[in-house]
Amino acid sequence: MKADNSKLSLDKLAVGYGGNALISDITLSLQPGEILTLIGPNGAGKTTILKSITGHLATIAGTVFIDNENMKMLSGKEVATKLAVVLTDRIKPELMTCRELVAAGRYPYTGSFGMLTTHDNEVVDRALKAVHAKDIADRDVTEISDGQRQRILLARAICQEPEIIVLDEPTSFLDVKHKIELLEILRGMAKKDNITVVMSLHEIDLAQKISDKIVCIKGDRIAAYGTPDEIFTDDKIAELYGIEHGSYSALFGSVELSRPTGAPKVFVIGGAGLGTPFYRALQKTDTPFAAGIIPKNDLDYPVAAALSENVITTEAYESVSDEQLAAAKKLIDSADYVLDAKPPVGEFNGYVEELRKYSKDKLSEVIK
Amino acid sequence: MLSESKNNLRYSAVFTVLILLFFFAVIWNINTGSVHIPIPKILSIIFGRNASDTTAYGIIWKIRLPRLMLAAILGGALSLSGFLLQTFFRNPIAGPFVLGISSGAKMFLAIVTIALAGFFTNIPVTVTILASFIGSMLSMLLVLLFSGKIKNMSMLLVIGIMISYICSAVTDFLINFANDADIVNLTHWSHGSFSAASWAEVGISALIVIPTFIVIFCLSKPISAYSLGEGYAQSLGVNVKLFRVMLIILSSILSACVTAFAGPISFVGIAVPHIVRIMFKTSKPIIMVPACVLTGAVFCMLCDLLARTMFAPVELSISTVTSAIGAPIVIKLMVSRRSKNES
Fold it and tell me: Which end of chain B is more exposed for a tag (fewer CB within 10 A), N or C?
């Protein structure tokens, strides 16, 4: 292993249980302050990899390096001052306040009887502040919500003053608000305090937005490793998760359910994002529809393209050609009725008016 | 910070009360019995070694003092053993009695008693003690062997309980084929009692229990890390594999010692740690370890007092009293815990 300034690196790591390698040949390297996220389907082995990095699971082959030192050569205490974890284990400590749980992170630094010094208490205070949990410090651990517990467990890890934090699905069971909150704390930690973060996430949209590097796990190998821009293409994600029905939009990190199939029964006149609610409503009732005319740079385009096979579209910033207009009219002819999402008509989209006029007698009022 | 000083105040207050209770239990124990000895006389006999009243001197020094000392030492040991097992199994009902430690001891004792029946008319006390000690350690060794294979603590607890049933079955089988005369000793032992305590027994048990207690106290810090779960304990630098083995061995030594000297005593190991948690409102090992010892000592001294005085001159077995008091406490605690956790 060549000496560089990587904080954490894996060299041809093979991980698994009972001597059988589940995933092999994992090689990657992280700089201080980088965020690496493992994504992949359920049961792909994200936890197995994380547990092998943290030393909870014996590695089958290969090496984990922390600061270019083989982790196996470091003592438990040395590792504890460099690497902290947030696990999925349900812990149920009895009669323990959040503050006490956070203070447990000082373990590698305290004396033989675990007494906290003034300095230790300051570190605990800072950690509580970092996760915005000062107000619940004196509450019993069993009495707080899932979101609060994740933050407290993160504070416990921060208290270890590690250079690397490994988190196993830290956002599971959290609602959207708490997910964002937790990830922002992590982001801040990574960028301000230069802590390297390794975690697994179920939410690929969030993974895309927070990570510096992404590892996709599928089968017995790393399916892809790179920056979010390299990884998050529509096809790669669909392939990784084996999405056959439904689709994933890499640009927005959003998921659409499977599109209705068959000849379009409805034509939606959309644009400016106003068509999207119509597309989704039609998808829910499994009604095949056509949409038009949506330029590729219109807000409505990604959803329209995901949910309909018949989208009349123009290239970005190009005007609508006669052929496209004719194709749209043809679809209107074959549709049972036409829905108007009422996009505004301006200098560049006179075609909307024309479509409205054309479909006059088929135009139905919207019943929401 | 404020709550911390409030906690410290609580700890000191409860410890003070416990120490007072301890002395109260000692005095009350000496004071009570078929022969009444007034308190001033007790003090002068104990501290002044005043031997002018030879009967009272004999009763105190030869009977009551060793008995209450044994009750205190073994009570403390039993509670501490229970606390360790509850920490290890992460289960509030784990305890030496539940885990087959006493049935293992009884089985081994039955085997030894019946095997030696032809050689002795009366099995020597040393043999009884050794046999039950070895029996307890053997049954815990089995649990320990399984703990290497089974990571799920609830399953391991079930295995401990199953081992207990197997041992009981073997014992019952042996008793069926034994002469009543041969197993008098076994029957007597299985009632569990602090009676007939001698200074030698006090000395030996103190020699085993006190160093073990000190070792456990010094392990308070890793125990506290362990109570967060093995995953977190390991990431904090605790050698979890070694620590598991140590926890089991230390708690087995304690409960094997109790079982050897006093026979099976139920519920102290489960009930006392719960009582302590509630009194101190904490589960910090650094508090729990000494508090369990002290509370267990007081609890057993008081239970022994009840055992020998409630229906005097008939003496109850110690388990009768500890179960009658301990079991309702455990039920009460479980019910209130449940309702709190699930609300």
Answer: C
Count structural domains, chain B: 1
* Interchain CB distance below 8 Å, B232 and A112: no
Min Cα distance A341 → chain B (Å) is 48
Tokens at B306, concatenated = 């009840």
A207/chain B closest Cα distance in angstroms? 25
Number of DSSP helices (H) and strands (E) in chain B, helices first: 15, 0
CA distance A104 to A82: 16
Whether B149 and chain A come into contact, CB under 8 Å, resolves to: no
CB A335 within 8 A of CB A264: yes
Nearest CA in chain A to B343: A143
Out of B225, B234, B286, closest to residue A56 by CB: B234
Q: Is the ipTM of this complex over 0.95?
A: no
pLDDT in tens, A58-94: 899 999 999 999 999 999 889 999 999 999 887 777 7
Task: Identify the pLDDT of residue B1.
Answer: 52
In this prediction, residues B240-265 reach a mean pLDDT of: 86
A117 touches chain B (CB under 8 A): no
Number of C-beta neighbours around residue B201 at 10 A? 22
Interchain CB distance below 8 Å, A104 and B1 = no
The answer to whether the CB atoms of B221 and A113 lie below 8 A apart is yes
B22 pLDDT exceeds 90? yes
Find, among B214, B294, B246, B253, the residue nearest to B87 by Cα: B246
Is A368 a residue whose pLDDT tops 60? Answer: no
How far is residue B270's CA from residue B210's CA, in Å, rounded to a whole number?
Answer: 21
Q: Are A7 and A31 in contact (CB under 8 A)?
A: yes
With an 8 Å Cβ cutoff, are B237 and A110 in contact? no
- What domain range includes position B319? 2-342
Residue ranges of B 181-210 with Cβ closer than 8 A to chain A: none
Instruction: Give the predicted TM-score (pTM) of the model.
Output: 0.82
Give the DSSP per-residue string, B97-166: TTTTHHHHHHHHHHHHHHHHTTT-SS--HHHHHHHHHHHHHHHHHHHHHHHHH---HHHHHHHHHHHHHH
Neighbours of A160 (CB within 10 A): 25
Encoded tokens for A4: 């560089």
Beta bridge partners of A337: A266
CB-based contacts of A103, cutoff 8 Å, min separation 6: A116, A120, A121, A124, A159
pLDDT at A339 (0 to 100):
85
Instruction: Give A238→chain B minimum CA distance, Å.
Output: 34
> How high does pLDDT run on average in chain B?
84
Hey, are the CB atoms on B237 and A84 less than 8 Å from each other? no
Q: Cα–Cα distances in Å, from A295 out to A289, A302, B31?
A: 17, 10, 99
Contact state of B224 with A114 under an 8 Å Cβ cutoff: yes
Q: How far is CA B156 from the centre of its chain?
A: 21
Q: Do A93 and B228 touch (CB under 8 A)?
A: yes
Q: How far is A101 from chain B (nearest CA, A)?
A: 8
User: Chain B contact for A124, CB < 8 A?
Assistant: no
Q: Of residues A30 and A235, which shows the higher confidence score?
A: A30
For residue B195, the domain's CATH number is 1.10.3470.10
Q: Give Cα A76 to chain centroid, integer Å.
A: 32
Residue A202, CB half-sphere, CA atoms under 13 Å: how many?
Answer: 10
- Residue A10 has a pLDDT of 92
- Beta strand pairing call for A8-17 and A213-218: unpaired
